[in-house]
Amino acid sequence: MEQLRIQIEQYEKEIENAIVSTKDELEAFRIKYLGTKGLVKSIMGEMKNVPADQKKMAGFMLNEFKISVENKFEELKSAVGEDSGEIIGTVDYSLPGDDLPLGTRHPISIVQNKIMSIFQTLGFAVAEGPEIEDDWHNFSALNLPENHPARDMQDTFYLNEDPAWLLRTHTSSVQIREMQKGKLPLRIICPGRVYRNETISARAHCFFNQVEGLYIAENVSFADLKQTLYFFVQEMFGQDVKVRFRPSYFPFTEPSAEMDISCLICGGSGCNVCKKTGWVEILGSGMVHPKVLENCGIDSNKYTGFAFGMGVERITMLKYDVKDLRLFSENDIRFLNQFKAAY
Ligand code: DAH
User: Fold this and answer.
1) What does DSSP say about strands 243-250 and 132-134: parallel, antiparallel, or unpaired?
2) Considering the entire predicted model, what is its pTM?
3) Which of 124, 199, 303, 304 has its CA 20 to 30 Å from the CA of residue 161?
4) How far is the CA of 175 from the centre of ligand 1 (A)?
5) In this structure, which residue's CA is closest to atom 7 in ligand 1?
6) Looking at the 3D structure of the chain, how many domains does it have?
7) Which residue's CA lies nearest to atom 8 of ligand 1?
8) What's the CA-to-centroid distance between 256 and ligand 1, angstroms?
9) Are residues 208 and 326 both part of a single domain?
């Protein structure tokens, strides 16, 4: 009898501490303690060994035990909940939470933000424009009238519904929108996505990002253009990078120049990235064509300006030695994770 009492006390402790979090665990509890071969039944079976004079006391004890097990079962049942099978009442809210893995900024965003902040230190403001553009803002106003051969330089996606509308092929269209507002002097950079009907490869994509720059005031000169872009390159790639300007052609600038930097991969000695020349092109630029100023209602006798445009993917590829443009739009976490420390 004494042994039975000790045993029951032990079981009571065990049951008191029992926790279940799912319906399956609840059922396991029921089978273990209240099932036909469960503990309560088997302890009841002990009654036959209890001496006759103690049976009454033992019966009382066992009954109490059975009731407490049944009560505990009801308590656990309501904690687990009827339908969900999920933990409802037995969560320990004091436990520390699981770490939420933080994402990383996309390399294009990192570089675009860096470009913007460099120009912002020079007093350039950020301006944005629409990705669906009309022919005038994307081409005509930029001195590319209809049938101008330079329109072929950029394969354009026109809208099926109305071919007067297109997906902008460059962010130069934002220049026009800002100049039209008529607030001078004007010093802006325009980041944004652009679209061209190109076959997708390691070096080309049908969409990519550009940052356009524009500075219009009285007496802006080509020297201002050179110094601004030189400052940009040094901030972006470091003090040791060399710069060179090559004469070029863009309908919206005159004179026009493309800017190269010394190859970051080989340091200028010649490699595959720079095609053995030691130089890589990073942007187009020039003095805003007087016709473009006039198209936007700006007096080209009073005002001059410079403009430039660069591809963000290209700068990113050079900065981080990325060899395939397609990586930027594939969302491969193994690629993106490498930029954790970059901002
Ligand atoms: N819009 C040109 C392009 O997409 C880039 C460019 C060149 C922009 C010269 C300019 C510029 O503002 O002056 O290829």
Assistant:
1) unpaired
2) 0.72
3) 199
4) 11
5) 284
6) 2
7) 309
8) 9
9) yes
Cβ-count burial of 157 within 10 angstroms (0-12 exposed, 13-18 middle, 19+ buried)?
A: middle
User: What is the 155 CA–ligand 1 centroid distance (Å)?
Assistant: 15
In a domain, 96, yes or no: no
Domain that holds residue 59: 2-80
Indicate if ligand 1 lies below 6 Å from the C-beta of 284. Answer: yes
Given a cut of 70, is residue 83 above it in pLDDT?
no
Atom number of ligand 1 nearest to Cα 253: 13
- Among residues 130, 140, 151, 160, the alpha carbon closest in space to that of 196 is found at 151
Query: CB count, 10 Å around CB of 108?
Result: 19
Residues 73 and 121 in one domain: no
Same structural domain for residues 71 and 215? no
Residue 102 lies in a domain: no
Is residue 156 lining ligand 1, measured as CB closer than 6 Å?
no
| Largest pairwise CA distance in the chain | 122
Of the residues 45, 80, 115, the one at which a domain ends: 80
Digit-coded pLDDT (tens) for 271-280: 888 999 999 9
